[in-house]
Amino acid sequence: MTSISLPPQAVGSAFSLDKMIVARDKTMAAVRRIAAQIRPGMTEQQAKDLAKAELESMGMDRIWHGIIVRFGRSTLKIFKQQIDPDNVLLDDDIFFIDLGIVWDGHEGDAGDTFVTGDNARKRACAEAARQLWQEVADKWRRERLAGPALYQYAAERAEAMGWRLNLDIKGHRVSDFPHSIYKAGSLGDFAQCPDTGLWILEIQIADPSGEFGAFYEDLLVSES
């Protein structure tokens, strides 16, 4: 059988940019609804189970990548590393949630970081991940940069802000489900300007102390 090579920014016949944005919005809403229910004393496994129940109650089509919840030092882990099911969230802690969910045949992918206490450095780290994501997205909108240039800019800005960017996390394709047939690779290695509504920009930073980090991801769309 002959293998057909599809362009890295191809989409399926059912693709709709409007549906991609709805999927993004629903996934981010789910992240925040789940975060509001996570409490100190929970384990990562309990939080993952809570997340799955919440997504089912919201009427998702399916999960397209595993639910990720990271507490404390585990916020330094990258996507491919397993959760620590017995890791407990502390009273003065940091955590993030990363969800990949299909809604109406389209892939949502969103992640954000939250803090349980009043630790100023942890709160600053969570906010810095969001700020850095916004700065990189704005750079893409203004200058139409390719993936490597976007992540070079992200690394430079992270250092200037006092954080370390984890360049093992470089973003990826999304589309009408399943995007994996397009074999597009990482956004950070993609040598063209990413089209609107097809790529997730991922930002993962670490505190220079090496004790914790923060994560934020969202869909790149031309209008903010």
UniProtKB/TrEMBL annotation:
The keyword Methyltransferase does not apply. Residues 19-219 form the Peptidase M24 domain. InterPro entries: Creatinase/aminopeptidase-like (IPR036005), Pept_M24 (IPR000994). One of its GO terms (molecular function) is aminopeptidase activity. SUPFAM superfamilies: Creatinase/aminopeptidase (SSF55920). Signal peptide: none annotated. It holds the Pfam family Peptidase_M24. Keywords: Aminopeptidase, Hydrolase, Protease. This is Aminopeptidase P family protein. It comes from Chromobacterium rhizoryzae.
